[in-house]
Amino acid sequence: EEERRRPRKNQSSSQAEVNREEEEEAGRVEEARRRAGRTVRWLENLPRQAARVSMRGMGLGYADAVVTAEHVKRGGRSLEEMDLKNNDLDLSSMQVLLPALGGCSGLKGLALGDNPIF
């Protein structure tokens, strides 16, 4: 009986950790939405099933990467090509964007040149 309770305790602490991480992520997204209002409005005006998106030279930074990643997760699955050249996207920005873009099974082209990635 005692042994059966331990996994439940571990399971509930694991669930608490997941909940905490989800809350932190939601907070990061909300802060990014506040800071990247221009990008949020731009993304909201895109057609829902846009296949080719160019955000070239928009001066995108980390907050923009966060809101773009959220947009892709929510509705950008039909994305085939994305141009992110000539922005201010660094390694931390890419660590947010690339996992979201990984969910786009039809993605054939991704342009990242002229960003301070490394």
UniProtKB/TrEMBL annotation:
This is Uncharacterized protein. InterPro entries: LRR_dom_sf. The lineage of its organism: Eukaryota, Cryptophyceae, Pyrenomonadales, Geminigeraceae, Guillardia. Residues 1-35 are annotated as: Disordered.
